[in-house]
Design a protein that fits this description.
- The structure is a single chain.
- The chain is built from ten helices and eight strands.
- With about 270 residues, it is α/β, with parallel strands linked by helices.
- It has a single domain, classed as LigB-like (Protocatechuate 4,5-dioxygenase, Chain B), CATH 3.40.830.10.
- A hairpin with a 3-residue loop joins strand 7 and strand 8.
- Helix 5 packs across helix 10.
- It starts with 6 loop residues before the first strand and ends with a strand.
């Protein structure tokens, strides 16, 4: 059995930023520095990566099962060369089957998808943490009903993988309202403070309970997340974290001129 690995919820920034240069890349300097710390921590320890990205939704949990997943260019308005980039990490059909079995083992329905590729919620991060693309990567889709309980349970089911050398990473954004930029300081700061308090200061069982009711309890909840596709990967990660403690590994109070963003490490 391998040493237990931490789990992460990472704000993934904007589009394919890690394949760019110039102002867009510089906007992500703080995020990139945090991701390099994750890279150093996982170097030589992670046998594979399980990524839950807010950019892949299905009616039921699904798992990429292809041996060589293709690219999904799920963004618009970028230069043509960014629709030709590659992140050629291998998949792992064996790990995909294991993930599928664990999820279904707790009564949650799921499936395998041999054709689905990596979206930018995966490769924008991994191009920094694993630039050589030499660690197998398997993506898990979030459910498009965004049910907090189901995603926490899925994470709890996946927790044993941490003892098998699998790094579990949730990729999203702790604040994600594309209609608000410069006028988001108050709402993003308030939501960020609540989220950080919930994850760091609250005991694990209460932490779970608060995340179940995040929409009712968090200030500016629906302003921070009009839809929770970028938040719900956190629930999977928290489920996998169990009773582990949390710390902030990235915090930026002026992302894109107005958002306050954070990333978290559990364990």
């Amino acid at each position: 059995m391998s040493e237990r690995l931490p789990t992460y919820y990472l704000s993934h920034g904007g589009g394919p930023w890690s394949f760019m240069q110039g102002p867009m890349r510089r906007e992500h300097e703080q995020l990139e520095a945090a991701l390099l710390s994750v890279s150093r921590e996982l170097d030589g320890r992670a046998k594979a990566i399980l990524m839950i990205s807010g950019h892949w939704e299905e009616p039921e949990f699904a798992v990429t099962s292809g041996a060589q997943p293709p690219m999904v260019y799920d963004y618009a308005g970028f230069p043509p060369e960014l629709y030709r980039i590659k992140y050629p990490a291998p998949g792992s059909p064996e790990l995909a089957q294991r993930i599928h079995s664990l999820i279904e083992g707790v009564g949650l329905r799921g499936g395998l998808d041999a054709d689905r590729g990596f979206d930018h919620g995966t490769y924008a991060l991994l191009a920094v943490t694993h630039p050589n693309a030499n660690v197998p990567v398997v993506q898990v889709a979030i459910r498009n009903d965004y049910d907090p309980e189901a995603h926490l349970r899925a994470g709890e089911a996946l927790a044993p993988l941490r003892d098998e050398g699998i790094a579990i990473i949730g990729s999203g954004s702790s604040y994600h309202n594309l209609r608000r930029r410069m006028d988001a300081r108050k709402s993003s700061a308030s939501f960020d403070a609540w989220l950080t308090q919930t994850l760091i200061e609250i005991a694990p069982q209460e932490r779970r309970a608060r995340l179940l009711r995040w929409e009712q309890l968090a200030p500016f909840a629906r302003e921070a997340h009009p839809t929770e596709d970028h938040l719900i990967p956190l629930h999977v990660v928290v489920g996998a974290a169990g009773s582990d403690g949390t710390r902030v590994i990235y915090h930026q109070d002026d992302f894109m001129g107005g958002w306050m963003l954070s990333s978290y490490r559990f364990g």
